[in-house]
Specification:
globular, single chain, alpha+beta, 3 helices, 4 strands
Amino acid sequence: MPTLHIEHPIKDFATWKSAFDRFASQRADAGVRHYRVQQPVDDPAYVVVDLDFDDVAGAERFLAFLRTRVWSSSENAPALAGAPRTRILQTADEG
């Protein structure tokens, strides 16, 4: 199952989470099967998000949506405090 891995600094978690929640229907429509939001234990101003998809093409399309419609707008991404780093990952092994 491909995962769109995203990480970036944020201004504050509550503002970021509110913006993230506003895009729940877009995530569902794009085929996100499951998501995880994590924060480093030593950095509350940073988030790591994993979005699971059925296929790589879906992850690529949603990444394009994020770049053009979400992260490019301070209204849509009010807590973004730096450029997101992204990767599309494929599970190679798990236990």
